[in-house]
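Ticket 4471: requesting a sanity check on a complex prediction with 2-phosphoglycolic acid. Repro inputs:
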Amino acid sequence: MDTPTPLVAGNWKMNGTSDQITEFKKLVQLLSGNSSAQCQVAICPPFTLIAALAAEGAESVHVGAQDCHAELSGAHTGDISAAMVADAGAKFIIVGHSERRADHEEGSELIRAKAQAVYKAGVTAIVCVGETESERDAGKTEDVVLGQLLISLPDDATSTNTVVGYEPVWAIGTGKTPTVADVAEIHTAIRGALVERFGDDGHMLRIIYGGSVKPSNAKELMTAENVDGALVGGASLKAQDFNGIIEAYRA
Ligand code: PGA
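Returned structure tokens:
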């Protein structure tokens, strides 16, 4: 059976002014200097840097966005639509990141509407799900994650327009990660749910892991069962570190 091409995506979050473009250029250089990695690579900078990074015209690194509005245009002061970031050069848009869910009280219905807007703009959605520490301690990880996924994913999700990001909230930016066995267990449960809902295409839908991924733990996390790449926050800000994570996909 075919297997999905892995995706290693960096999420710069609310970090980076024009100085940070240098790191993007360094990354492109590092990727061209190394034997090619068997994965797709993307950087999701703040909105303000999307056009500048896309203008670099790098073939080895796609540009993405970290969020979008659920509508493609209209009277929504201060918001940015999927059509706008697509026009600026974004090929991926993260929706449902736990920081959006927590800071802006975004629920799974809204995330689904955002994912639909992403599809309409012709871009790939990275739909994030993940449990909090207390949910994990209560043994509810699978229920929470599969519950979020059921509502957050539109019925017309496919392996082309969607990537699932599993990010345990307690592992984000903390240096803590689940064990490889725990990651494999939940990714396998997600795979089961995807296949049940989307049939064979569910096997090809990428499920990427996020939460304190670094060069030192990337290889073991990325080789866990049903892990098709990484969503990387802090370690994506430095080209050298991010390249060290991509290293997991070099022969
Ligand atoms: P981190 O963030 O790599 O800094 O833990 C991951 C994320 O939020 O996507």
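Notes from triage: Residues 7-31+38-249 form a domain with the TIM Barrel fold (CATH 3.20.20.70). Leaving this open until the requester confirms.
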